[in-house]
Amino acid sequence: MRAVLQRVSSASVEVEGRTVGSCGKGYLVLLGVAPNDTEAEAERLWGKIYNLRVFDDPDGKMNLSLADVDGEVLVVSQFTLFADARRGNRPSFTGAARPETAIPLYERFCELARRDVRHVGQGVFGAEMQVSLVNDGPITIWLDTDELSRSRRQGTS
């Protein structure tokens, strides 16, 4: 799984001119699923996101987690995180999971977030969406469960 995590003051997603999901202070998570991903990757990725300390403490240091700031989350599916543009100018998306694999893992990720966070908004899987956000910082972080697993095997976190 891959995620682009943006620390936001607020974010929302619209489908056909109607707001379908939003959040206040917290994270906008753009989430991509790979064909071989499992619930273990969803759990690992959510655990990393939930515990990341990228919110400012009283001294202005990024030292607080989502739980520490009672933050909210908006999760938007984004298969384009698996774009392969190595050949030509039109990206290939064959590295993204098909909907029958991706939808259950996207929903599982959102369930995990709801377990820990008081408000979780969602986009609509597969829909044409317009995402608006106020990036706070700006803080934008890219996470990939393959990289998280690799660093775990090498003894770092």
Keywords summarizing the entry:
single chain; about 160 residues; alpha/beta; D-tyrosyl-trna(Tyr) Deacylase, Chain: A; six-stranded mixed β-sheet; two-stranded antiparallel sheet; about 25% helix
Write the H/E string, N to C.
Answer: EEEHEEEHEEH
CATH superfamily: D-tyrosyl-tRNA(Tyr) deacylase
Count of alpha and pi helical runs:
3
Terminal Cα span? 17 Å
Give the strand tally: 8
Rg is 16 Å
Query: How many domain units?
Result: 1
Poorly predicted sequence stretches spanning 5 or more consecutive residues: none
Explain this structure to me?
This protein is an alpha/beta fold. 25% of the residues lie in helices and 36% in strands. It is built from three helices and eight strands. The strands form two sheets. Strands 1, 2, 3, 6, 7 and 8 form a six-stranded mixed beta sheet that branches. Strands 4-5 form a two-stranded antiparallel sheet. 32% of the residues are buried.
Summarize the structure.
With 157 residues, the chain is of the alpha/beta class. The chain has one domain (2-146): D-tyrosyl-tRNA(Tyr) deacylase (D-tyrosyl-trna(Tyr) Deacylase, Chain: A).
